Amino acid sequence: MEWRLPPRRKEPPPVKLRLSSIVLLTLLSACSKGGDIIAGQGILAIRSVCPQVAIPAATGDITVFDPAGRTDAGAIDVTATITNVRATCQDDGAYVVSTASFDVLATRRDVGAERQVVLPYFDVAMQGGNAVVAKRLGRVALNFAAGSQRAQTSGQATVRIARASATLPTDVQRKLTRRRKAGDADAAVDPMSEPAVRDAVAKATFEHLIGFQLTQAQLQYNATR
Fold it and tell me: Is 1 part of any domain?
């Protein structure tokens, strides 16, 4: 069965880079920050080689039913949610290494003896918003204590991306960072309006996606509940 990622929901909300102004800097000066208006240049937009970390829509929650095949509230056995995603990035070598840590919170229907529930999750490197370049599957174990309805655990996922793949070509960088002066013929032209520039930026943009590895039935349940 083919599994496809639905449209993405982000948590926590890393900044989605949108280039609607006329300047993008890949190297920042010590005295400038994103959003600054630079005289004679435009608005600074910060671009990083580090991937944006996100949870795709409808994959941050999982519901396990017992008995299987039912989807009514009375058959809900265990529910779990991925939350509190923390991302770190090392970008000082030949590879950019993104590590995402997260918590999983779960509840169960029947409070009784101690019980362990193991849930699968995926770890994906996405390029350009539509191409999966790497995927790994992992598992988290939730241990319910006797008499306890809730359990919590933590997980971690790491992806490595070649720095060269996440770096814009020199000619594209030059177009994006070129000084423009008021009155110039192309002063108000967004370089991102050029298909070649837009495609190069997309190709060098990566996302690190984490979510539960759902069955088709579980994915449909999340999308329609």
Answer: no
